[in-house]
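Retro notes, structure queue

What went well: the backlog is down to a handful. What didn't: a couple of records were mislabeled last round, so from now on we paste the full input next to the output in the thread. Example, using Isochorismatase domain-containing protein 1 from Oncorhynchus mykiss:
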Amino acid sequence: MECIGLTLGYSSGLQYSPICSTDRFSRFCTVAPSLNDPRVCTHSHDTAPGIMADGHSHNNHVPVLLSFSAFSRPSSVPVGSGYEVLIQKFLSIYGRQIDLHRKFMIQLYSDEWAQYIDLPKGFLISEKCKLRFVPLETDVTVLGNLIPATTVFFCCDMQERFRPAIKYFGDIISVGQRLLQGARILGIPVIVSEQYPKGLGSTVQEMDLTGARLVFPKTKFSMVLPEAEAALADLPGVRSVVLFGVETHVCIQQTALDLLARGFEVHMVADSTSSRSMMDRMFALERMARTGIIVTTSESVLLQLVGDKEHPKFKEIQNIIKASAPESGLLSKV
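Corresponding output:
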């Protein structure tokens, strides 16, 4: 699914996620409050023709006033509509006026505060209300900073049956073990997936999963499944995902794109991911970099996480990287 350059924010942290050009939008709203939840729009206004006294229409739609720039247009959306539906509605009405290279957010008019407020995370529409599409004053650039307290590691499908098929598998296992060791030292949560382990075996023995927050089986290529999303929900401060494993052009790429669509900053470790084909591997790395995923190396990740020679864990991290990581065929393609 290809994405256009428009980016939107929500919640007090102003997280941003690409908006896709098809009708299958990424799932931003992970919380589904009841209609009695105070986050749900419950403003009352004069009823319009075809609208019942409680603000609902006879066809189970809710009237909304959608504003952008100097324009305002009445419309309607189904009861229970969330962020995705609102994005689609704004784009269908104002698409030609929207600069796709800018970043935007949706705001909700609050009677309590008598002004527009940031759309609450998990917002669902219950009754008619006013919303606006707001360009941000400053463009938000992905800087790629990594902080242990806001980072999680994703280890994808490093399994025994892949050993003879994946290019430089021994090298990427070695680098992956460095990353896992660094995560334990720095207290960074690790989420591990295993693709159809009944047929493809468990994670290779060289990879020490001691302390991993979650190890789960999957058949879908992407790691972004309910189990992983639940684990992420238990880590509310996380905004950066360091991703490594196999295969670069399949499970890694699809996981990275799914995470990006959910507002996470994705750091893909090039020297700890590979494919059966170097062609597939290199084109996937290039595609991900162009999509906004940060393609980096294991040493860069570990040193960025400590950030300072005076960091109390610096010497332990230094011991991991004293010997340079194997280049795993990357230099031959530069």
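Agreed that this is the format going forward. Reviewer comment attached to the example: Residues 50 and 57 are 6 Å apart (CA to CA).
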